[in-house]
Amino acid sequence: MSARAHSYDAELATYQHHNPRSAARFTAAQQVLAGGNSRLTAYFAPFPFYVERGEGCAIYDVDGNRRLDFYNNATSLILGHCNPQVTTAVIEQAARGAAFANPTEPEMALATLITALVPGVERLRFTNSGTEGVMLAIRAARAYTGKAKIAKVEGGYHGTSDHVSVSVTTQAGDADTPQASPSSRGITPNTLADVIVIPFNNVEAAQRILAQHRDDLAAVLIEPAMGGLGYIPAEPAFLEALRAACDGHTTLLIFDEVQTLRMTPGGAQQWFNVIPDLTCMGKIIGGGLPVGACGGRADVMEAFDATQHAPGIPHGGTFNANPMTMQAGLATMRQLTPEVYERLNEYGTALRNQLEEMARSYHVPVQITGVASFFGIHCTDHPVTDYRSAQGQDAALRQKLFLHFLNHGIYLGNKIVGNISAPMERAELEHFVQVWERFLQAVQ
Predict the structure, then answer these.
(1) Which of 147, 149, 283, 415 is catalytic?
(2) Which of 287, 308, 317, 328 is buried most, with the most CB atoms less than 10 Å from its CB?
(3) Residues 6+ positions from 244 with CB-CB distance below 8 Å
């Protein structure tokens, strides 16, 4: 048995030993939940741990383990767990009512705040998930342009609706001419025919493909930093090329800012100074409660307006803009001053640099990606710049790394991705680095 395999077995045994109650709960859950849970990213082998509570930047599980939370529910908890102002806002709203079939003032207040901050958003509609926000944006683009097809980046994740479940975890065609490939069962040939795939950060190839299909393209959809691939940031020239490819051809540029909105008060579009026609939002605007939104130019969003005539796009939803979520979102967004963003991004940059320098000094084949307060760790010896370069990693080393962090009091996403939350101080980052060094020492 190799030293690396033995090391993995030791980490696995340690995890199982310290999480017996979670193991028992997962066994029971599989009898009533398909796959034992309702969220793919919540599962990892041999079994996920069950959270009992969260406080600040830490979570506590049913076995009594405390872990620093560097995942923050997929970046949504930018203020950490149980932020006092968010908790108070939710409790006070619950005492007044959790949901109504009518508008409430918090909806207007949160919409006013967002439109003032995000450059490309003049009007918006709230939903209950980022997936719904993306679906709404695609529908709006088709309604506005009268075209059917969309273009998306290979490897880009935008939720679970049909048209974006294409070329996410699968690939087809050459690297500079990717072809639409289903990333899920149940995707029809007609759906695939409506999706054009472009390579990430390849200006020349993207321009060529978009020019080829411009007469049929309603929209180009992109996440400015690819979350599913370790937050690989788009090159500014690439985003500028997409903006130029859409201009003058009745094609809308859609930014999926469900995660990247935490980069600056105005999101990634402010960071890169490239303004999309439509913006998909979620995560931090709900303060930890289910939320999503689609916003953009007033003339495009007019399709949802029912005040003058029947709307071009009827959009309902029992829990859209429910006051519980709106109050949590308001309590969160009002605390996110420019200084908070600056500090989060400073910590993120410092952590990425330190992880990379240490990996080089120990000669361990890993790559660090990320931007602002995001980071990703890749178990490979070659640079990771897009979907294809992110493939072929050392799966055993990745699993060992994931369990190593869990066993030493740190929780990351199971793709070895993370982000910084506001309650974190340098002490939390120093602990992360110490655990990282132990890993490097063990596998060098």
Answers:
(1) 283
(2) 287
(3) none
* Residue 77 and residue 95 in one domain: no
What is the separation of C-alpha 335 from the centre of its chain, rounded to a whole number of angstroms?
21
DSSP per-residue codes, 15-67: HHHH-HHHHHHHHHHTTTSGGGSS-GGG--SS-PPPEEEEEBTEEEETTS-EE
Is 362 catalytic? The answer is: no
User: What average pLDDT is seen over the chain?
Assistant: 96
Tokens describing residue 160:
């679970």
226: β partners: 232
Instruction: Convert the pLDDT of each residue in 22-81 to its tens digit.
Output: 999 999 999 999 999 999 999 999 999 999 999 999 999 999 999 999 999 999 999 999
pTM given for the model: 0.97
Domain holding 8, by residue range, is 3-82+338-443
Alpha carbon of residue 166 to chain centroid: 17
Please say which residue of 306, 333, 360 terminates a domain. Answer: 333
Residue 236 and residue 353 share a domain: no
pLDDT score at 5 = 52
**Active site includes 283?**
yes
Residues 155 and 276 reside in one and the same domain? yes
